[in-house]
Amino acid sequence: MSQPASNEQRIKAVLQGMRRAERDKAGRLSRSTDTLSLIDGASYGSTEDAQRVLDWLGRDADTLATLRSEHLLDVGETICIVCNGCGGDRAALSQWLNGSHAQLGGQTPRQLLRDGASARLLDAARACFAG
Asked: Which domain of life does the protein's organism represent (predicted)?
């Protein structure tokens, strides 16, 4: 049986997921003709990303403590997609996290996390914030 991940390990896994999201976004933008959008993309390794993770852990540390590493990668990517989709607006982010959504079968994102359905949550975030 594996040891539970430390907070530091959880943060690192979530940040890896965020990097994955930013790489995907940069790849999509590089295929577009809008060079300014590519330049304007989120920076890698930014302190803002780390702050997003810490904010998330502060609100939902108990849920994240139960998730395996592969789920934490999905959570990181979800955080990035949702934060970018909400334009960094914390109230909008909180509303999305706590609201029920048709893409989630009427469940909230927090409920899906508690059920370990991080891949389903990631798919819903992509659908909600496509672009």
From this structure: Bacteria
Specify the pTM.
0.59
- Token match 């990668």: residue? 73
Write the pLDDT tens digit of every residue in 13-37. Answer: 777 777 777 767 666 655 554 444 4
Contact 37, 29 (CB under 8 A): yes
Q: Which of 20, 110, 97, 98 is nearest to 63 (CA)?
A: 110
In angstroms, rounded to a whole number, what is the distance separating the alpha carbons of residues 60 and 47? 20
Nearest Cα residue to 52 out of 20, 89, 25, 26? 89
